[in-house]
Amino acid sequence: xxxxxxxxxxxxxxxxxxxxxxxxxxxxxxxxxxxxxxxxxxxxxxxxxxxxxxxxxxxxxxxxxxxxxxxxxxxxxxxxxxxxxxxxxxxxxxxxxxxxxxxxxxxxxxxxxxxxxxxxxxxxxxxxxxxxxxxxxxxxxxxxxxxxxxxxxxxxxxxxxxxxxxxxxxxxxxxxxxxxxxxxxxxxxxxxxxxxxxxxxxxxxxxxxxxxxxxxxxxxxxxxxxxxxxxxxxxxxxxxxxxxxxxxxxxxxxxxxxxxxxxxxxxxxxxxxxxxxxxxxxxxxxxxxxx
Length: 291
Hints:
This protein is an alpha/beta fold. The chain has one domain (23-286): Divalent-metal-dependent TIM barrel enzymes (TIM Barrel). Helices cover 38% and strands 14% of the residues. It contains 11 helices and 10 strands. The protein has an 8-stranded parallel beta barrel, surrounded by 6 helices. A two-stranded antiparallel ribbon has the order 1-9. Helix 5 (145-156) crosses helix 7 and helix 9 packs parallel to helix 10. The termini are far apart.
């Protein structure tokens, strides 16, 4: 599916680097109820913000318009870029059953209605790849990858025009991915500027302990197709979503890889306890990795 002609002014959400390279700016993910506590920090830094309310089916089936109005009232005026985390509970982009695929499409389109209502220019969705094999065995067309990509393309067929219409980019987040190649092959096949990669650093670190590449190597492999990052730390035993510095991730190596890119992905601190956001930001800024 070639959608190379689907260009928009905000499709490339990873901003080009300025001539004089400066430290990357940290953003954060949170629900609407957490905005007042962190609004000053977000506004002062014109930071990227990710609203996570649209994850839940209760919002999408309820009065999401009222929630959007509430968010707009809190954020006006807001100098930074806004995105959302889209729905993923019980959903997969790789649905083979046409009726299940229709449900996934409906959820994504409703979430994009919510995104449009708050002026969001990115939406996170989850990678569908969960290869039942050794990480050193590349998930390739001979192992079913081509058929899986066809299923994802079918799921996204009505979603891509909506993304283009509202100037929003779908960023596909690494979840159980053990190797970058399947997700990159998916992006190359869809070939739409409104679909890019998102790396969750904690997720790929757990994958590394199971035989996959290190988090920094994921960045090198993704290159300019990387538009979004979830910053969270872990010890590798569980998906902790701890503040950076609490776990085992080599953050110097990860940010060093980010600094080689020709673009700046949105850097979203995503914590299980949003109250620890100041601690997370201070740890990274104190080490000269971001601001």
